[in-house]
Write a structure and sequence with these properties.
heterodimer, A: about 110 residues, mainly beta, 6-stranded mixed β-sheet, 4-stranded antiparallel β-sheet, 10 strands, globular, B: about 120 residues, 7-stranded mixed β-sheet, about 0% helix
Chain lengths: ~110, ~120
Amino acid sequence: EIVLTQSPATLSLSPGERATLSCRASQSISNYLAWYQHRPGQAPRLLIYDASNRATAIPARFSGSGSGTDFTLTISSLEPEDFAVYYCQHRSNWPPLTFGGGTKVEIK
Amino acid sequence: QMHLVESGGGVVQPGRSLRLSCAASGFAFSTYAIHWVRQAPGKGLEWVAVISTDGSIKHYADSVRGRFTISRDNSHNMVYLQMNSLRTDDTALYYCARDKAWGWFDPWGQGTLVTVSS
């Protein structure tokens, strides 16, 4: 089973600042990585798939990069609605599909 | 507008059964695989199961294999999760999600809460 480790667990930032979230895989997963945003009380939302492709209707301030074992989600300038929990997830050599433990982006 | 709505959650005693439903609308249901994903209270996301477009392929997480069964009815745009021998650690918010590219989840429903407690 591929283990995904996200860091940091919590990121405290102010609106307008840049957020950089990390996801590391326990083995190479090529570019088979996605990022999801999960706001309290709402359904999770796909942001990025195949490491760097933005999903439908996702704003350009969200970008993904990386391949192999190290991946990054960048939010270029935080909007109030971006404060949420973010999960990475792989689809390499599955089942099972697994998620990282999440990074909470909170208002500083 | 793509839409997934889960139902069937509730409070159930350990060892009992429950069947969750996922109603889909706004897209060509029979051409998409469907997943179940859950989130235990205060925890992260855990993939549970997937069913292919025609129901011929089913995969399960180790934690539920042998106890949970996923099925679908393409004539009614429905997916089901039959949960037997429920345990307290099955307590979670259960989401159904449409598959994208055989392994991504897009979109998700709002979830249905299952509480296993004596």
